[in-house]
């Protein structure tokens, strides 16, 4: 059968129209990418505005995840960097992990012209030494600034996978060389940048992670630092060429963690930061370096809040002139730092923290609360550096029937929305931005088919009022309380305190003033008249919750010294 020009398109259009009319529920509307159209609306704006996610080689899956984050008010996504792993090669070209001694299955199928990729690389530099070999599982495709040496660097298709051979030397002709063999199953970072740009969001791809010390794997292996920085330079030069015009490329994320405390001058992680951040600042000028250190308030192994400020300054000093965001981990998910209010130090710890510190009081187990640590850091600002907070969306251990993380270890449990609300309330008065670890599995997992995920719980109650600051405040000669937080407008403040002698008093006061947020999702303020009938000097705390004009109530109270 033959058709004249123009007939086939008309026939296809007619068939499409019939299908739409006959079974519209079975037709999936797609755009030019083959994916459902984007929906960049933020319909349930919650104070967490960024999440860690995994890059995905599938463009439509990437769009689905980015759209879901955007619906909750997210404007930022962060990825971990893949690790540059030191390996050794045998005479047959097989690669073995330098730390574990195990064969690397990801590279067993790498054949270049029928020869193992390591042997083919050695053949490409006859008479020159390949002194070190590294592997890298790339969540992306590489371009010309990574494969910059003709005849040496190349892309290899083998066994249905894409491999890259990258030779690092003083120049393209001068050895010795370090060999990086990379493998990828798709352009996850490229997909993420494209989808984030389409949703008006920002991306911080992870810097290549440093090889681990063979004896102390929590430290970088500094003898390989030169190879790491050379490889990082190529990757970021490639970002500048291929993605530099993207409005979504906001900066990079430093994947190697450290404790944010006073550290020695010769600290290995700070040495890594200085070297790799200098490369990032030069390759991507003006873009932000994000670091996410942790702190530990446990008395048996942690450090007091005062040390956190010194650690903040030491990390800030590694930025090489680039803007930096230090997104400190709040510690509640791991059980390293608790969330409790003023006057609660002698209460028993939350039952979900007992597997970490035992059935004791907060004062017995910890040097202080999340709020204490955040306030200590906020009191020592550094120009050019923003304080972000990384809220941990999990529990230290799972309980029976609870969806949790199973890989990598350790196992983690799931947090409730009320628990996460309390974390936001503890840090939101000082954080320039609140982000969270992480989207999967903690936001999307369900205990069973009938229970909501954390993300669904947030979407159902996104406008619960959250108070992050409160203080006595006089307005027009009248005593009152001013609160700062989210979704406060309208309604009342419920205020409780103790009078001398211990009598509990509760007052409900209608809001009389409201100042809207300066930016979407930002903090707003509200004021209500209030004059306490004397405060108990032994319990000088005032506790306040809110009911907003939509009838939503705070899930947790905010306490402050009256």
Automatic annotation (TrEMBL):
Signal peptide from the UniProt entry: 1-21
Chain spans, region Disordered: 512-533
Keywords: Signal
Name recorded for this polypeptide: DUF4434 domain-containing protein
Source organism: Nonomuraea indica
